[in-house]
Design the sequence.
């Protein structure tokens, strides 16, 4: 199986996923192997939602639609064109996946297989239904993937390198356990937005997507705002109001009520609008239904701070703050070449 065959297979997977969108499901009889997989995947989506209350229709279909948009032949070709895949000796690469949002580990899965390696996947129990089914689809549309994809519930064994994602606590365990293997170990990270008070209504509404998408559970979700002194929150609260139906989701509402009670009993100062609380706090990781904020004096001071804390920050949403910034509303729309923690996964895999 050469690189073009692998590109073609993932492109077919993208076409398959394109039937499942936030606007609804529409079957396309021209999709490869659709008769075998279409109805079954609808069932897997149902199981995923029943198993994990955070995996609502909106969240699952947004993830599937995002991957459908990413997995086009032109997109994949553009991504892999910067690497040399010649003379790759297939190795066994273990992946320990998180389960905070649907298919959160798919990029690592894709990177390993597109590089020509074999993948050994240990999934989170929170997200265990979708990926194995999509792996079966890949094996049917490209039989060369057979025997290259393995899922396990047990301890990883017989691997040459590992990519593991978890909390700061689990990362310490990973670093010890995998100390003798090439590895990428990912820890807690959060995303921030830097505002200057001159943002447009459209920008702030787009920022609300960065905050609320996936209920804020992803590392690319904005959990903290950096604000100029005397910032007026009126425009911000007006802009985020489009997400007010989120309070009707039971799991979100329970977290909102709980965290609000904690803040009130602790007599913390906060602002809230019935579905979101904002609280001044120097931390980056805010609880569900809460966004932290911190004031800055000068842009120069803020640049120094974000540079100092770069290992805690996944994305910076801003307009003109840094060359690596992400436009408002785009944190959950990464390109294939936007790597988690700014660690080039494919480069790592090609040098093992």
Sequence:
């Amino acid at each position: 199986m050469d690189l073009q065959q692998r590109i073609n297979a993932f492109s077919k997977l993208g076409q398959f996923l394109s039937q499942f969108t936030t606007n609804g499901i529409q079957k396309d009889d021209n999709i490869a192997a659709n008769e075998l997989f279409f109805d079954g995947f609808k069932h897997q989506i149902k199981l995923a939602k029943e198993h994990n209350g955070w995996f609502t229709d909106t969240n699952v279909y947004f993830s599937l639609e995002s991957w459908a948009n990413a997995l086009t032949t032109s997109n994949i070709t553009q991504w892999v064109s910067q690497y040399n895949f010649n003379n790759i000796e297939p190795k066994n690469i273990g992946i320990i996946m998180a389960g905070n949002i649907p298919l959160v580990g798919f990029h690592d899965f894709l990177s390993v297989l597109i590089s020509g390696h074999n993948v050994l996947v240990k999934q989170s129990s929170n997200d265990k239904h979708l990926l194995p089914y999509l792996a079966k689809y890949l094996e049917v549309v490209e039989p060369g993937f057979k025997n290259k994809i393995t899922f396990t519930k047990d301890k990883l064994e017989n691997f040459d390198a590992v990519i593991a994602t978890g909390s700061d606590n689990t990362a310490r365990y990973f670093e010890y356990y995998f100390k003798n293997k090439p590895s990428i170990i990912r820890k807690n990270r959060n995303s921030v937005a830097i505002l200057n008070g001159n943002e447009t209504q459209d920008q702030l509404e787009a920022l609300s997507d960065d905050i609320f998408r996936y209920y804020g559970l992803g590392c690319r979700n904005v959990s903290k705002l950096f604000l100029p002194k005397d910032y007026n929150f009126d425009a911000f609260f007006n802009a985020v109001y489009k997400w007010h139906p989120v309070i009707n989701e039971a799991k979100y509402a329970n977290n909102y009520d709980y965290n609000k009670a904690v803040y009130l009993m602790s007599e913390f100062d906060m602002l809230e609008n019935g579905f979101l609380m904002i609280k001044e706090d120097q931390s980056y990781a805010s609880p569900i239904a809460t966004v932290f904020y911190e004031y800055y004096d000068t842009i120069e001071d803020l640049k120094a701070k974000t540079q100092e804390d770069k290992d805690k920050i996944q994305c910076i949403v801003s307009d003109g703050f840094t060359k690596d910034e992400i436009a408002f509303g785009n944190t959950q729309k990464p390109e294939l070449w936007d790597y988690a923690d700014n660690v080039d996964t494919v480069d790592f895999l090609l040098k093992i």
User: Anything to note?
Assistant: Residues 173 and 197 are 42 Å apart (CA to CA). Residues 190-317 form a domain with the Aldehyde Dehydrogenase; Chain A, domain 2 fold (CATH 3.40.309.10).
